[in-house]
Amino acid sequence: MPHPETSARISNLRKVVELLATNSEKLIAEWEKLPDDRYPHYGTDIPSHEAYNAGLVIKAAMGSIEELTSKPTIRLLEVAWSHINARCLHMAAELHVADILAEGGDEGVSIDTLSEKIGIEKHKLTRIMRALASDHIFRQVGPDSFANNIISQAMVDDEPVRSWVALQGLSNFSAVDHLPATLLDPVAGPSYEVTATAFNRAVGTELSFFDWLTGKVPASEATSYYRPATQHPRYVAHANGAAKANQAEKDEELVFRPEEALFNAAMFGSGRVTGTSHVYDYPWGDLGRNATVVDVGGGVGGFAMQLCAAYPSLRFIVQDQPAMIAGAPGVWQETQPGALASGRATLMAHDFFAPNPVKGADVYWFRHVLHNWPDKDATRILSGITPSMGPSSRVLLAEHVTFPPFSSSPPSPPSTTTTNPKAAAATTAPHSPAPAPSPLLANYGRASTFSNQDDLLMLTLFNSIERTPAEYQSVIEGAGLRLVKIWPCRSPVSIIECRLAGVSD
Ligand SMILES: C[S@@+](CC[C@H](N)C(=O)[O-])C[C@H]1O[C@@H](n2cnc3c(N)ncnc32)[C@H](O)[C@@H]1O
Q1: Residues 197-214: pLDDT tens digits?
Q2: Partner of 369 for a Cys bridge, out of 107, 150, 225, 297, CB 3.0 to 4.6 A?
Q3: Is the CB of 42 under 6 A from ligand 1?
């Protein structure tokens, strides 16, 4: 007769394995429905709702199995040392390893060739590649050769995705290193100012992250351990704006930081990684003909471009800081030719802390904007919209919504309907997400890793936050709005709909 704790562990492991098996079959059934030319989990494809829901349970189950079956000391050390794996991936992304391996196809590329192309001594490089391949990123296909697997393939010829990975290896990595000292600092620790962060401490600046990012520095200060950052002219143009790029050419001793081009390429691409579902998981078609969407803090308008392609009757106004807007026309011309000339899309320099000049728009869209700002600033940003809204205007926030792994509510099985279980209950009760089935963690554990990582990155860089539903509600109500609904999305990033307080839907 096993010890009672062992019996409980056996029972839990059986339940989790059962969930894993059932949901794997659900996922396989969805894959089998795909047409011959479609490959699951690839590029900008979004999964069916059933496949997405099954994927959440599978990921949560993998985390539970790890907890139930690992030797605790080894598991602790694996996580404590995971900065080493992250560092290897940063290097691989920065040095374009996936693109180089793609040249060798399934047979891969020899370590000699890879070493020659990226400049790391081959025996050391073999160890880095072995670690990544053992972590299921890249594939070792022979004693001395490596190829891409389905994970690393996602960086091939995809500058935005590669940039997003590589960006983590620059100032973000250093900033996280300074998080403990900042949290324990008697002044910075309790502060929620955007200029009192671990990032400020790490890079030795009093500027906020965005002011630092867009500033120019002497070339000698813009060095990094890897070769020059993204040179793809498309993203350099997006990133810097034509005016700034021209100025840089004239002003040879001052250059943009390597982070800037990577950041802007990454933002442009992040929409394709986590944002494609937002085009399909919100009823944009119900807005009516010629409805106007204002993309506030929209960068060059990456999301507006996606929506413009899918909904020909919508009109767009993209607002951002002047330098960003200066670089936007070329991107629109390339991606949505004719939209600017026909007046369907307009670009507007606008400081989102000021009252919004566009009155009565149907939608004020904010993607990954509020998460950069602590609560008081986030409320100020939304307060710039409230006076411009009409009775049918809505504010839509595309952000991670975080939930605790603990729930006192009874577990419910994941939905097999067309909703995301994480947000299904939120459609009727924004504060109570449907917890994952027992014995999985209520917030789907491993499946919420990326949202939790982003939350802590926001803390590190901005003293800001990826909010819970209650935290959104507080910020939203502070601006004279009310939280209407958290829309189920097939993405870790949800859409939070708000209306004017006191105005019914
Ligand atoms: C994280 S990026 C998100 C960009 C875009 N919404 C997207 O999802 O791709 C935040 C954006 O806020 C813009 N921003 C920062 N401060 C701003 C301000 N005071 N007024 C307008 N835009 C601002 C930045 O230039 C940047 O484009």
Answers
A1: 999 999 889 999 988 888
A2: 297
A3: no
